[in-house]
Amino acid sequence: MELLEAIRRRRSVRAFKPEPVSTETIKQILEIATWAPSSVNSQPWEFFILKGEKLDQLRNKGLELVGQGVGPHPDVPLPDKTRGDMGLPGIYKKRQVALGVTIFKILGIPKGDQQAMMDYMASMYRFFDAPAVIIIALDKVLHLSYPLIDIGALIQTIALTAQEFDLGTCIMRAIVDYPEQVREIVGIPESKHVVIGMTIGYPDWDHPINSFRSERDALESMLTVVE
Q1: Which of 63, 96, 117, 158 reaches 20 to 30 Å from 36, CA-CA?
Q2: Per-residue confidence in pLDDT tens, the chain, 227 aa
Q3: Domains of the chain by range and CATH?
Q4: What distances in angstroms separate CA 130 from CA 13, 52, 147, 208, one per listed residue?
């Protein structure tokens, strides 16, 4: 796949086939992705591939905590919730709401149907039933600062590379919403920040949710040229 085509075609996959993905294939993707740039070549990322019984344990624990009303508290701090849901103000909140409205419309969830919305949230904490997830960690000696930019470049590279193997991904905070449980189940030491998770699997292109791709604002609305 050509690079520009891969960039344009990449989307967050929210429905997967049950077909497993080999660990070797995921390792190939990660090996390629580690060529992503990082500040002073620090390569601050560490990977944990989660499949099978351990993945089911993490799903079940997340669903249990959500059911108990335990709020998410990932290692990378959430926006200030005093400003509203997820703490997103202004245009950022507007984009978030538009995303949710469109997804619910595609899934046929009526406005105000709390049970259907809770079912969708549960699917998020099942990680959309992906056959594998990748969890990315960061040594705490590096702090949550510029290394997060490096990890941002890395996860985009993983998402683009996965398409070459006919795989889809979804970058998901929900995977790491409860870092204590992630550390316990996955075996990540306390000395590491649990930064982000990604689903990976073969997309179910027949599912209507995978026809969806979020919109992008016009470049002119976010561009200033200084000459």
Answers
A1: 96
A2: 799 999 999 999 999 999 999 999 999 999 999 999 999 999 999 999 999 999 999 999 999 999 999 999 999 998 866 554 567 888 998 998 899 999 999 999 888 888 888 899 999 999 999 999 999 999 999 989 999 999 999 999 999 999 999 999 999 999 999 999 999 999 999 999 999 999 999 999 999 999 988 889 999 999 999 99
A3: 13-77+84-209 (3.40.109.10)
A4: 9, 10, 27, 16
